[in-house]
Design goal:
Elements (H helix, E strand, L loop, with lengths): L2 E5 L8 H12 L4 E6 L7 E2 L3 H6 L7 E7 L3 H13 L5
Antiparallel strand pairs: 1-4, 2-3, 2-4
Helix pairs in contact: 1-3
Length: about 90
């Protein structure tokens, strides 16, 4: 199962608009995508659920672990990586 560890540098972390952008992108792929906040050692949540993503409490500087499984898993992780690294388009 492909996975990705990435640091969130956005000033508000994964809250409000960045979280919505993240979920929107994850939902565009047919694979199962799970994620957790490595910094706080949270449990995995569905990356396609806005409530799940928000409950992780990802703040600026936190590391997230994302797992993808199924069709287009590698493509999904690459797209998510680009979104996070671009600071969610800002």
């Amino acid at each position: 199962m492909p996975s990705l560890n990435i640091k969130v540098d956005h000033s508000v972390g994964l809250h409000a608009r960045p979280a919505a952008e993240f979920v929107k992108l994850a939902s565009a792929f047919p694979c199962n995508i799970q994620m957790k906040n490595e910094t706080t050692e949270s449990k995995f949540v569905n990356a396609k659920s806005i409530l799940g993503v928000l409950t992780l409490g990802v703040n600026q500087g936190h590391i997230i672990l994302i797992n993808a499984e199924g069709e287009q898993a590698d493509e999904a992780l690459e797209a998510i990586k680009q979104l996070v690294e671009s600071n969610f388009g800002e």
